[in-house]
């Protein structure tokens, strides 16, 4: 059994043995992983209307985040999520409702 050594708190302890880790691991990352992520069409304003006015309104508001400070993005995305969720719930309720009622 290994004995534990007392090490003063002000001295760093290196317990990770990386002798079996290959330096080639970094080379295994595909080049496209480092490529910039394209801006979604909704943010670039190039999205075609869906035909659902509620969804189109949400997409338009999300498309405007590029013009806002980053701190304001959360509010926009949370509002978009809430509005899209409500739209989906309404659509499902309408489909599940018996016809004629």
Fold and architecture overview:
It is built from 3 helices and no strands. With 101 residues, the protein is mostly helical. The protein has a domain at 45-101. It starts with 40 loop residues before the first helix and ends in a 5-residue tail after the last helix. The mean pLDDT is 74.
Query: Which word captures the global form?
Result: elongated
Extract low-pLDDT stretches. none
> What structural class results from the helix and strand content?
mainly alpha
Mean pLDDT score:
74
Give a short account of the largest sheet: none
- Work out the helicity level: 25-40%
Element-by-element helix/strand order: HHH
Strand proportion: under 5%
Individual helix count: 3
For the structure shown, list the relevant keywords.
single chain; elongated; mainly alpha; 3 helices
Show the helix and strand layout.
Elements: H1 41-44, H2 53-62, H3 73-96
Short account of what is shown:
Residues 32-42 have a biased composition (Low complexity). The protein is mainly alpha-helical and 101 residues long. The chain is 38% helix and 0% strand.
């Amino acid at each position: 059994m290994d004995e534990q050594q007392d090490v003063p708190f002000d001295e760093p302890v290196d317990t990770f043995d990386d002798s079996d880790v290959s330096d080639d691991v970094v080379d295994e990352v595909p080049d496209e992983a480092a490529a910039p992520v394209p801006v979604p069409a909704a943010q670039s304003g190039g999205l075609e209307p869906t035909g659902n006015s509620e969804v189109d309104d949400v997409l338009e508001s999300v498309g405007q985040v590029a013009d806002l400070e980053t701190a304001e993005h959360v509010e926009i995305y949370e509002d978009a999520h809430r509005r899209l969720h409500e739209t989906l719930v309404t659509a499902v309720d309408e489909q599940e409702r018996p016809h004629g009622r």
